[in-house]
Automatic annotation (TrEMBL):
Belongs to the pseudomonas-type ThrB family. Residues 32-276 form the Aminoglycoside phosphotransferase domain. Keywords: Transferase. PROSITE patterns: PROTEIN_KINASE_TYR. GO terms for molecular function: homoserine kinase activity; protein kinase activity. This is Phosphotransferase. InterPro entries: Aminoglycoside_PTrfase, Kinase-like_dom_sf, Pseudomonas-type_ThrB, Tyr_kinase_AS. Pfam families: APH. The lineage of its organism: Bacteria, Bacillati, Actinomycetota, Actinomycetes, Micrococcales. GO terms for biological process: threonine biosynthetic process. It comes from Arthrobacter mobilis.
Amino acid sequence: MDTEAAIRAVRGALKLYGFEETSGIDLVKYRENYVFRLTRATGDSYAVRLHRAGYRTDAQIRTELAYLQALGEQGVSVPEMVPTLDGNLMCLVRADDGTNLQLDVQRWIDAAHPLGDVAEALTGESALEPETFRLLGALTAELHDRTSAIGRLPGFDRGAWDAGGLVGDAALWGNPLAVEGLASEDAVLLETAMARLKRDLEALDASADRYGVIHADLTPENVLVQDGRMIVIDFDDFGEGWHLFDLATILFFYQPHPRYEAYRQALIDGYGSVRALPERFLDPWDAMLLARGLTYLGWAGERKGDAEAAFIAGQVVPVVLGLAAQYTSAGASRAGTGS
């Protein structure tokens, strides 16, 4: 489906929300879903997501939107959901070929910009200060506090970022070994690291003080800044997982940055200022970094030819290979000492 066809599908839903048929619809981005900015004659703007056919079930999307609404009601800085006139957070629209597509609407966040840029993080050019990560750590802790309090809402249906979801045969973002251009010796290294990582994750504590509903994609581009306030967006991949995985995701792309250690300490300090760190909470940090990196390789492996997949193959694979080498080496050392 091309952009014009997607816009026609969106126009078919306008009356369900009470929006004028003459409202402006402009493409913002297309990745897993189409995201449009809809502007009414009043000047009010909305973010409209038209979901890719078959990518998510109705139940999965309704679970995401219900959590967004619940988090907003509890004061967490997330997008504001806009229901249909009938009160539904999601509706179905028909594409030109007769396919039913899911659609939801959020209020547009004006005068906001992404916290950071992945490319700048990797090259070390990001000018962010450690204080920014302290604030983001506090916000992440608040998010985990609220999701823990909410628990599993009725009809909960989302994937789990557990050992199987991260590095299992049916990993949520695909097989890391499928990434384009992977040399045979590098594939062997990743296979070895993945096997060790899977065993370690399967043995990891998953009690409620360290495992629960998480965002699962807290990159610098999924945090908007509006008048100094941070707003967490794009819950498309949220599910259950280790809280530490969210923190590792925040810092993954900053590993090559000269201020990485200062960022990491600030992030953890901010998190701990809101939510008490359980005993040995940070021990699996290296495992979470490697797991996060492997998911990016899996994502790219399923999207060969995509510009972002090419970026991952060229820029992220070397980072993950370094993590894998360190992880297998550390594991061998532990085995050698019997610890």
